[in-house]
Specification:
single chain, mainly alpha, three-stranded antiparallel beta sheet, 53 helices
Length: 1221
């Protein structure tokens, strides 16, 4: 009854009543009927045809009932009618949504139906699994959402005047509602199945399981569902790749084949590619023909494989050609056609060997058939070819065998009556042309604003509907509908490929609607869509799409352009803040954009001038309402974002802090700078300080860098705020107890160290010191590793130019050492020492320096008493010599000694004297516990460097700052203390005697006579105080050093050509008296005088020369000629000295020495001379003066008449020159 056709009123009412009864029957039937085979067969046999007629009806009521029936089939019978739904869904739903000329009532009806259908999440998942994941089925779900998206954007209707503006808005709203419903269903589906999966894990008693070896139950169904989900996801991915390959092939065949091969959809083999071209639906047949006609070797091989795969046995020639051309369309080029038809002829003759003697005949005839088809059915060709002409052309004489006339006539009749055509290609080309024409026409109409009649006449629509009915009926009758297995979706993982397929169309629909519409209901729908999209992408781990949804939502807040803001932008801001409050973990890498929005919101609401520019072009009421809405959001809504930061997971909280620091940095660059985000940083730091130390360490790594940047701001107010914030955070963190060997406190206070070192502002540096002092006074009992940074801050303050800053810091250091020394005696003891040394070097206040030295002494006493850093707490006396004491000396004693050593060169007398006394007192008291290696370190790196300045000043021409004062007050005292120390610990430091003598004699040979005198006095003191402990080898070393110093300081001015004297002796008398002396300047090479030891002369080839300053230099003639530097002679035989000693005897004074002593010439020096204490002291005190005066007053007997007696002035001058050493 419902299939009756006619315009009669009775027939129409009968049809409507029948359809209503069918719908009611399907809705109320028992669930058992949905799987009853007899009932299902009746539905297929009768209902499908009735539904087919109703869905193409132009009657609105009939179409509405058809949609109602189809909805019932979708919701209740889809498992049994998979193939039928696959036919009716595109016919009813997609045809109405995608067709630009679909009637308004059809679209409205379909949208209402989809609003109900989309609410069923199970139905949507089943559609996706059974159709979108099936390679041979239509993408029903994806196409439905894409069509709804285009309709919501308003891009489907090319003719703007076909639907009224109100109706068009209604369609957009309905489409948008459907899209939001789809998203909501996906969210419910994901949530439901995640909860059921969690429930099944906790309660698996109702699930069939298999016990494992460990006695646990293995959920087989869960594993099976997971594998099914993977299979469907892979199937969808394969289908998507295949569709992309088909699109690429339809654009350019060669690239499409390469895409297929690259994605491993087909091997690069001619047979495989030929099979794909024949069996893959959707490929453009013109492109297939163009590819098969290519002349390249591989394409030719594919074409041969394509033709060889066909079977033309027992087929008539024209029938074979029709079958051959079904799969592709012949290309337009003659050469391509020639290659294809040649292969066809070869294959046809192979399958039908008795019809033609050779393939040439079949080839010519095939070409003729193609020409005849074009001639007969192309209206542009005239006149038409007659049968006689066709027979005559193909039966003429020639090398090719003639075709029987009967066959030619039969082929002619067949081709003329039934054109060889490819309907699929023609229809698709026709649709493409119509689509392009419609778009161009619609564009022209929109420009000219013209009214035009409907695009289709009623007759055309009726004819098209009839064609649809006929094709569909033929499809059902022939069984062309594929009857596949229906799969019921059961796993939450399917939501991911579903959202991947529809996510971008959804985002486009929401974005376009937000840009074009100010309608509040539609804006609210868009906001819900954004929220659901962000929620789903976060749950499914789709980061790229989640980022796209979030950034689009942020952009629609329009906080970057307040003049353009509207009420819809406030809704976007509300949604964003709600997401930040309810789902903060969904924001992840977009926190920077969200926090920037909050910062801009605060800036807008706190600036009346900007509020006045809101919503330009609107009335004052709307602008005031908008401003009030923004003010409402600034309070609790934005504050809740920061309060909820405590709920963020560990990784995300670091991103949150990083983003907020970035926003704060941008605020500080503004003019004037803003501190809103900086304030929030301090607040959320308080909120999150209870996190585990590993997480807080990562947070502070970000915060500390930003606080250093803010504390270095050019605006002192900003810098002071940042430093005060650091103080607050430091105070808060110091409340937490820190275990040993951790350094979190030090990390917290490090920014203060960086700031005080880099800041150029006295105010800022003073504030930093005050903050540290306050922290120390209030949290002194909790500070552990933080002492390191505390002392580093005070060390920087010690070098500050401001006396107030240095004094404030020192007072606190003094209090800490005197009252809380035990707390800093651990790993921070070295920092404490460095701090005290820095204060001791403070040049502003001598009082501070002296106190610092006293505190150093206190630290040394506490260290020696048992406060050994590292936790041993043993008195120094209880620690034996060895590794432990060496380690303590190396790491704790040496810095203290080196610091005191540096202070001995301080320009202030009281400071250097105090440092000198403390240094040597410390060494005398604790030196008994020092090892030999450490003593060497002390002498070489602590004591000897005291004299580096005076030792090297004369060399480079430098002058002392106050030489007389330093030499008179400090140098004498230093050398005395050094000699006394050496004598006190002679047994431990005797191996350092050469180094000590080198120091003393080096000072004695300086040009400065005061320094030389002091050094000689120290040398005498060394022999007087410690000579009784010297061994024979020590005396030898001492005398050799003195001898070398003598030769180094020879008075060359006395050795001129006019006066042939050496130390007052002429050569004759010298040779007579000593017998082993010659003029030193005449010694060259092997000319060493007899009786003189080789040390006095030179080695073979060496030359002895006198430098300008009186230093004797040694070098070979060759080396001197070549430019080598001569070297000082450091060796001299003791023979000359022994001779002097033999002659001196027991002289009482230098003035009573006789010119000659014959009795002394034959004396030899006894070995016990160097061991005699009395004689040793006398030698050291009088030897050099004795030698000098004797040489100056002696006259040669042999040449007394030749050498004139020197005048008193000459003698005085020569004595002065000699004493320069």
């Amino acid at each position: 009854m419902c299939m009756k056709e006619g315009n009669d009123e009775v027939i129409s009412k009968t049809k409507l009543l029948s359809l209503e009864l069918l719908q009611g029957l399907l809705e109320t039937v028992s669930p058992s009927f949905t799987v009853n085979f007899a009932f299902i067969d009746s539905v297929k046999a009768y209902l499908c045809y009735a539904l087919l007629r109703a869905c193409v009806s132009s009657n609105a009521a009939v179409f509405q009932l058809a949609c109602g029936i189809f909805m019932v089939l979708l919701l209740r019978f889809r498992e049994s009618l998979k193939a039928e739904i696959g036919v009716f869904f595109p016919l009813i739903i997609l045809r109405s949504l995608e067709g630009s000329d679909s009637p308004l009532h059809q679209r409205t009806t379909v949208l209402r139906m989809l609003e109900k259908v989309s609410a069923d999440s199970q139905m949507l998942a089943d559609l996706f699994v059974n159709y979108d994941c099936d390679l041979e089925a239509t993408n029903i779900f994806e196409r439905m959402v894409s069509s709804l998206s285009r309709m919501a954007q308003g891009t489907l209707n090319a003719d703007p005047n076909t639907v009224a503006a109100g109706q068009n808005a209604s369609l957009k709203a309905s489409s948008l509602q459907c899209l939001v419903t789809v998203l909501r269903s996906l969210a419910n589906w994901t949530k439901l199945h995640h909860e059921s999966k969690h429930f099944s894990v906790l309660n698996y008693d109702w699930v069939k399981g298999v016990p494992t070896e460990n006695g646990e139950m293995e959920n087989k169904e869960e594993i099976e569902e997971t594998s099914q989900a993977d299979q469907f996801e892979k199937a969808k991915a394969h289908k998507s790749t295949m569709e992309a390959a088909i699109l690429e092939f339809n654009r350019k065949a060669g690239k499409g084949i390469e895409f297929l091969v690259a994605n491993k959809l087909v091997p690069r083999e001619p047979a495989a590619i030929a099979h794909l071209l024949r069996t893959t639906p959707g490929l453009n047949k013109s492109m297939i023909g163009d590819y098969l006609g290519q002349h390249e070797e591989f394409q030719v091989a594919v074409m041969h494989a394509y033709v060889d795969d066909m079977n033309f046995k027992n087929m008539k020639f024209d029938q074979a050609i029709r079958e051959f051309l079904k799969g592709f369309r012949l290309p337009g080029e003659a050469q391509k056609i020639d290659r294809i038809m040649e292969k066809f002829a070869e294959r046809y003759c192979r399958d039908n060997p008795s019809l033609f003697r050779n393939a040439d005949t079949a080839y010519v005839l095939a070409y003729a058939v193609i020409m005849l088809n074009t001639d007969a059915h192309n209206p542009m060709v005239w006149p038409k070819m007659s049968k006689a002409d066709f027979v005559r052309i193909n039966s003429g004489d020639g090398p090719v065998e003639s075709t029987p006339q009967e066959l030619l006539e039969e082929i002619y009749d067949s081709i003329v009556q039934d054109e060889i055509k490819m309907k699929d290609s023609q229809d698709s080309n026709k649709r493409d042309r119509q689509k392009v024409d419609a778009e161009e026409k619609g564009h022209l109409i929109s420009i000219l604003n013209l009214g035009v009649p409907k695009q289709k006449a009623a007759a055309d629509s009726k004819r098209e509907n009839e064609e649809i009915v006929q094709r569909t009926q033929a499809l059902f009758k022939k069984g062309g509908v594929k009857r596949g297995v229906f799969h019921t979706a059961k796993h939450a993982e399917l939501a991911r490929p579903m959202l991947e397929a529809i996510g971008w169309p959804l985002l486009a629909a929401f974005s376009v609607t937000m840009e074009d519409s100010d309608n509040k209901p539609r804006v609210i729908l868009c906001m819900e869509g954004f929220r659901l999209g962000i929620h789903l992408t976060k749950m499914l781990g789709m980061d790229t799409m989640r980022y796209a949804f979030l950034t689009s939502l942020v952009r629609f807040t329009f906080l970057h352009a307040p003049k353009e803001m509207r009420s819809k932008n406030v809704e976007a801001l509300k949604t964003l803040l709600a997401m930040s409050e309810n789902e903060p973990d969904a924001l992840q890498d977009t926190w920077n954009a969200v926090l920037e929005c909050i910062s801009r919101l605060e800036y807008i609401t706190s600036s009346p001038a900007i509020l006045a520019t809101l919503m330009q072009g609107s009335n004052q009421i709307s602008r005031d309402a908008l401003a009030q809405s923004l003010n409402d959001l600034t309070g609790k809504s934005t504050e809740q974002v920061f309060v909820n930061s405590v709920k963020l997971p560990s990784d995300m909280i670091v991103e949150f802090f990083t983003a907020l620091c970035g926003v704060s940095a941008e605020e500080l660059k503004q003019v004037p700078p803003r501190v809103f985000s900086l304030q929030k940083l301090v607040e959320i730091s308080y909120y999150n300080m209870a996190r585990i130390r590993m997480v807080w360490a990562r947070i502070w790594l970000v915060l500390s860098q930003h606080f250093v940047s803010a504390g270095s701001h050019q605006d002192e107010k900003i810098a002071m705020y940042a430093i005060d914030s650091l103080r607050q955070l430091g105070m808060k963190y110091l409340e937490r107890e820190e275990l040993t060997n951790f350094s979190f406190q030090n990390d917290i206070l490090k920014p203060l160290v960086v700031l005080i070192r880099t800041s150029r502002s006295t105010v800022i540096r003073g504030l930093i010191v005050d903050c540290v002092v306050q922290m120390v006074k209030s949290k002194v009992g909790n500070i552990k590793s933080g002492w390191k940074s505390v002392f580093m801050v005070f060390t920087a303050a010690a070098y500050d130019e401001s006396e107030h800053i240095a004094d404030t810091a020192f007072e606190n250091v003094e209090q800490v050492i005197l009252e809380h020394f035990d707390q800093v005696a651990g790993d921070c003891f070295m920092d404490c020492l460095n701090c005290l040394i820095a204060f001791a070097n403070n040049k502003i206040s001598a009082r501070t320096s002296l106190k610092s030295i006293a505190l150093l002494r206190i630290c040394e006493d506490r260290l020696a008493e048992g406060h050994v850093p590292g936790g041993t707490f043993k008195p120094l006396e209880d620690v034996g010599k060895g590794t432990d004491i060496e380690e303590v000396a190396e790491y704790y004693w040496f810095p203290m000694l080196a610091g005191l050593s540096e202070l001995t060169s301080d320009p202030r007398v009281e400071v250097r004297n105090c440092a000198l006394e403390v240094l040597f007192d410390l060494l005398k008291e604790r030196g008994s516990k020092f090892s030999a290696p450490f003593w060497e370190t002390v002498f070489q790196r602590v004591l000897f460097p005291i004299f580096d300045y005076v030792r090297h000043a004369g060399k480079d021409g430098e002058k002392f700052t106050s030489p007389e004062q330093w030499l008179r007050e400090t140098c004498i005292h230093s050398l005395q203390l050094l000699c006394d120390l050496f004598s006190s610990f002679y047994k431990d430091v005797s191996f350092l005697l050469p180094s000590l003598l080198g120091l003393l004699l080096d000072c004695a040979t300086r040009p400065d006579q005061t320094l030389a005198s002091i050094a000689i006095g120290a040398l005498v003191r060394l022999t007087e105080v410690g000579g009784h402990q010297f061994h024979e080898q020590d005396w030898t070393t001492l005398l050799e050093s003195i001898r070398d110093a003598c030769y180094t300081t020879q008075p060359l001015e006395l050795l001129n050509s006019d006066s042939n004297m050496v130390f007052g002796l002429d050569y004759g008398s010298a040779s007579k008296k000593y017998g082993n002396s010659m003029h030193l300047q005449n010694f060259r090479g092997d000319q060493t005088p007899s009786g003189m030891t080789p040390e006095l002369g030179s080695s073979d080839g060496e030359a002895l020369e006198m430098h300008d300053n009186g230093q004797r230099l040694i070098g070979t003639q060759t080396s001197l000629v070549n430019g080598d530097q001569p070297r000082p002679s450091r060796k001299l035989s003791l023979v000359a000295v022994d001779a002097d000693v033999q002659e001196s005897g027991e002289l009482e004074s230098v003035s009573s020495i006789p010119p000659e002593s014959p009795a002394a010439e034959g004396k030899t020096v006894s070995p016990g001379l160097f061991g005699s204490q009395t004689l040793g002291r006398k030698i050291m005190g009088n030897m050099m003066d004795t030698l000098l005066l004797r040489n100056l007053t002696h006259k040669s007997k042999n040449r007394s008449s030749d050498v004139p007696s020197p005048s008193p002035s000459q003698v005085s001058s020569k004595i002065s020159i000699f004493f320069r050493w």
